Please model this.
Amino acid sequence: MVKKKVRGSPFEGLDRALKSILVSQGMQQQQLSEITGIAQSRISSYMRGDQKPGLNNLSRMMDALGISLGDLASELRQLSGDTQDELGALHQKVERLQEVVGRLVLEADS
Model:
């Protein structure tokens, strides 16, 4: 059963958080698969965000990675903050672009 990506769900960003933790620990998906007994294709699907792990598989991955629920929540908050920072910067760039375009239109009309 494939679970759809749902914005605002508690699982939003879980794929990026798991991937970030995996990379920071220098572990490959295949290694995580071997340690947890979860199929590598399923882990790959979790990392792409195509599927969300159930509590059992999430717990097995967290144990294998040596992280707590607090560690995972912290990573999710960090990634969420990074996303908000990126959105804020993008919003500022769009506003500046609108100002420049507005000035160009005024100059072209005069």
In short: The two ends are 62 Å apart (CA to CA). Confidence is low (pLDDT under 50) at residues 1-8.
